[in-house]
Write a structure and sequence with these properties.
Layout (H helix, E strand, L loop, with lengths): L1 H39 L4 H46 L1 H12 L8 E7 L3 H6 L2 H11 L1 H26 L7 H7 L3 H15 L9 E9 L6 E8 L1 H30 L3 H10 L17 E5 L14 E5 H10 L1
Parallel strand pairs: 1-2
Antiparallel strand pairs: 2-3, 4-5
The structure holds zinc ion.
Length: 327
């Protein structure tokens, strides 16, 4: 509606401008000519005067037509405005939509984030993957990226949900109800639909750009190399989910290691020592040789080894240390 009004005014203005501008110029020229001619007293004075008068009438006509069009349009706009106000005040459908709008609160975040890092060598830059660079950024600042992903996801879900709810609001207007307001049902619905469209919330922020750039400048500053990429929301979310999954996997692994270590009880330790005859299974020394005996995992727990008799053996502290050096 506003756009129509503006474009209409612009068109009227252009018509007026186009008609009035050249005639004004001409009349100025004519004036000069006219003055010159009066001095020389040429017979064409009368003709020029006529032309000048003709342009004057043209201007008046253009002005009047533009004025009439403008006034008519203003009247139409005012009538329309009053009718819209009346429908807005009385429509249950619009009232419900406005109530729904009050419950919606989209989240606003920056639309672009820039990350830049300098590499120490050209080789490092060549081997660097920007996906890995962004994964590193996400891992080191998880809450920041979680906030971005959550805000956009929230906006998307909330907006789709909002549209669904808004579309389900149907009109309650009846023929009699519209008659009381001085409308036909068809006319009332036309206004109601139009206002409903205006009052519907606009699409919120649906996307974000995370720009990553890694650069390397040669020591003398002669050569400058870089890699860069822009990630949109979907790509960012994929990398964010991947990073979170990696973190969970790592935590699960650490938890499993802790559980496996806890299975080594004093009783199990004694059983293994006894089974191995209280002797180191590598060098054969025993406590009387001045060594300290340990129960050792053959495949270490960190590498998936279990705390079961088949994976356990007795080692002296010297052999155990030698083993850990080799691991
Ligand atoms: Zn030993």
């Amino acid at each position: 509606m506003k756009n129509k009004l503006i474009s209409f005014c612009v068109v009227v203005f252009i018509i007026f401008f186009v008609i009035s501008l050249p005639s004004g110029k001409d009349s100025d020229n004519n004036m000069e000519e006219y003055e010159d001619l009066t001095v020389t007293e040429s017979p064409s004075v009368a003709n020029n005067e006529q032309t000048k008068k003709g342009f004057g009438i043209g201007q008046i006509v253009a002005l009047s037509v533009s004025g009439v069009i403008l006034v008519t349009f203003c009247i139409i706009v005012i009538i329309n405005y009053k009718k819209c106000k009346l429908v807005l005040k009385n429509s249950e459908r619009i009232k419900k939509l406005l109530e729904l709008n009050q419950t919606i609160n989209f989240r606003r975040i920056q639309s672009r984030y820039n990350n830049q890092q300098e590499c120490n060598s050209k080789r490092q830059l060549d081997h660097l993957s920007l996906d890995d660079y962004l994964i590193g950024l996400i891992a080191s600042n998880e809450s920041f990226y979680r906030n971005i992903v959550e805000a956009i996801s929230y906006n998307r879900n909330t907006y789709y949900d909002y549209i669904r709810q808004a579309e389900s609001i149907k009109t309650t207007a009846t023929e009699e109800f519209c008659k009381e307001l001085g409308f036909s049902l068809k006319r009332f619905l036309k206004y109601e639909n139009r206002i409903f469209k205006w009052k519907k919330l606009r699409k919120p922020q649906f996307n974000v750009t995370v720009h990553c750039k890694v650069t390397y400048t040669s020591p003398q500053g002669r050569n400058h190399y870089w890699k860069e990429e822009s990630y949109n929301f979907d790509e960012l979310k994929r990398l964010y989910d991947h990073t979170v999954e990696l973190k969970i996997q790592r935590q699960t692994r650490q938890y499993q290691i802790k559980i496996e270590r806890a299975k080594m009880t004093d009783s199990l330790r004694y059983d293994i020592l006894k089974r191995d005859g209280f002797r180191c299974q590598i060098c054969g020394s025993c406590a009387s040789d001045g060594v300290k005996l340990h129960v050792d995992h053959i495949i270490p727990v960190a590498k998936g080894g279990q705390t079961v008799a088949s994976n356990l053996r007795t080692l002296c502290d010297r052999c155990n240390m030698g083993k850990s050096d080799k691991m």
